[in-house]
Structures are given as structure tokens and as C-alpha cells.
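[step 3/7] fold_predict: job queued, chain A
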Amino acid sequence: VQLQASGGGSVQAGDSLRLSCAASGRTFSSYAMGWFRQAPGKEREFVAATSASAGSTLYAESVKGRFTISRDNAKKMVYLQMNSLKPEDTAVYYCAGRLWAGSVSPKLTYTNWGQGTQVTVSS
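[step 4/7] structure written:
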């Protein structure tokens, strides 16, 4: 599966953005999918994940209640709806996938990565 993220941009604090990740390949519906981000000078961090069936989702504490991950297996798309954005959400956001049929967990590692999309939130 190849992944391509899009939808980033520059917004004001409190605004919303929706990131999209388009996947290619016939096995997308068997992939757990996640979103990660990396701010300047910081390590990449987990943001959110959804299981292959979308029956299981997981969020970082810092985004819980503000971000929502979703997927459309028919369209081979994963989304990250980001509301109430804060300056500390500024980062390059990456989508990632892994062939995995089970629930998602913080320990799950991902094998397929897309290019990043920049999100900049100004105060």
C-alpha cells in the first residue's frame, strides 16, 4: 500500500482542518491506519489510529476530544478531522499503515508511510 497525505495548511487557533490520506493497493481494507506528527526539533509522535474495520480507534491524550480519525475502505481513504486547533498542533503530519486485523494499540508499529503534510496553527 502506498500512501499520500494532503489537506494541510495555515490556520488560526480555534480553526479546523481535515487531513486526507489516499491509499493505493488492493489490501487497504486489511490495514490498520494511523496519523503521526513531527514538530520542528521534536521526535515524531503518535496522534491517532484506526483498525482495519474501523471498530477500534485510539488517540493521543493531547488531541482526544478535538481530533477524529475515520476511514472509508471503499474509497481507500483515511481522514483526520482536527477541530479547535492550537499552536502546539503545528507539525508535519504523516499517515501510516500496517497490515493488521486486530485492534490498534500504542505499541503497534507501522510499515507503510506517506509523505507529510504541513499544518501550521498561529495564535
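[step 5/7] annotate
The mean pLDDT is 96.
The first strand starts at residue 2 and ends at 6.
exit 0
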